[in-house]
Amino acid sequence: MRNKIGIIINRLVYGFTFAFLYQIVIGIATSLLSLPLTGNIQDLISGVEQIDSQQGPWLVAWWIISTIIITVMALMIIRYKKYLSPYKDEKNIEVPPRITIVTAIIIGALISFLFFLLDSIIGLIIKSGTATDVEAIYQAAIVGDFVPLVISIIFSIVAGFIIVGVAGKTSKVKEMTKDIGLQDITKISKILNKTMTQKTSLADTIGHSPGALIHVGQQRVENVRIDIVEYDPETITEKSDVKIEECLESKDKPNVSWINVIGIHDPKIIEAFGNSFEIHPLHQANIMNTELRPSIEISDNYIMIMLKMPHYISETGKLELEQISIILAKDHVVTFQEIEADFFDQIRKRLRSKTGTIRNLKSDYLAYAIIDAIIDSYFLVIEKIGDITEELEEELMQNPTAETMQTIQTLKRRMISLRKSIWPAREIIDFLVRDSTILILDNTRTYLRDVYNHVIQVIDTIEGLRDVIGGMLDTYLSSVSNRTNEVMKTLTIIASIFIPITFIASIYGTNFVYVPELQWEGSYFSMLTGMAVVSGMMILWFKRKKWL
Asked: What is the pTM of this model?
């Protein structure tokens, strides 16, 4: 009992000391910033609500600073509690000698939030207008009203427990944040960005069994959508956003079925298609992994082709590579896309209007048409990059800036991405042309050879642009160097002109008693004339040397 009472008294002292010191800090800050400060997380909430006003950013900044102040005060009270504690038998609380700023902000934010809750609870209990400052407590006690005093004592005791409880966890918080500092704030942004975009990486698959259905990459659509097109030489049926059961029934029909799945993040849908169409578990896992290299897998019942389709976002100038997985079987083609946007609209129009021979041929020709559309999409992206390159070349010749260098580096990264995605396609198309699988007819192989030529053309264009962009980097560096040399030459010429003038002026700045020409009335104008003549002769000489 004695120990419990002693601990409560200690908490009362800690809470009162903290509240007293922190009220002084808040008073000073309120006076300096001219802001209505509460000293708890309410300042952050108000700052976020008023972020567009002048006060908003100041309130947010004050809250961050206040969390550090709170942590420092709390840790100082705990560290030197032996000088404050009336009850000396309480066991010591371990406090690390040094902590990072991130740890301090976390500890201070916790205390600030708990104080906010405490204020809210007390505000619900006591009547409105009850003050708890020292003067109000004294005046109330004189007339026999001890409510403000009791509230102050309760607040101080609870505050003391909050300070000790949270400060006692500082070591654990420091251990959790030991690798995080202010310079690592970008890591926190990446973690938050990962959560917001639901992006996973290959690291998330480590330790799982082969064939585990784990989506690797960014989830680009919220819900999976399945479209189906069934056709033969006479009829065609299109259905959008159908149920998976209806798609699975189409595989037993004699006509050609094209099932297009938009969204590859749902393992249940991938598994349902995989089991129904007898797709190997490893291939099912590959469909969900967007970070794999384009590849081809041939089995007895189907051919699986994985390609990358580029998308150039004109508004942002960003290049995105979408993975397209194609399952080619005897009478059906299943495609898996990450997003809805694609280059397959012309194929759909040809199917609807019965243009060409696509309706009269089998699923292998449909697969060829899809592959051809994917490869042709590279020409559109390369054309846009080529236009940017031409504009950049003109800018390099006229007025290159630091932004020019940044654009060149961005283009280099884009060309590397395009090259990495198109080179494997060359092997894939060549394999389809040469392989003896019965799923591809000889007539279709002729068309695939044309696609192979397109791939070679894309590769040659990309290599040419890479060389041009690499040369642009050298041109930029040479241009910057030449401009620097021009500036240095100009400054050197100016300095050279002023050297003899300075020499002449320095003669008359010497402290000799007798300088004969100083007694002559025209000496000053003669000196100026001499300076002008020397400067003019030097300028003429520079022009003759073609330095000007």
From this structure: 0.58
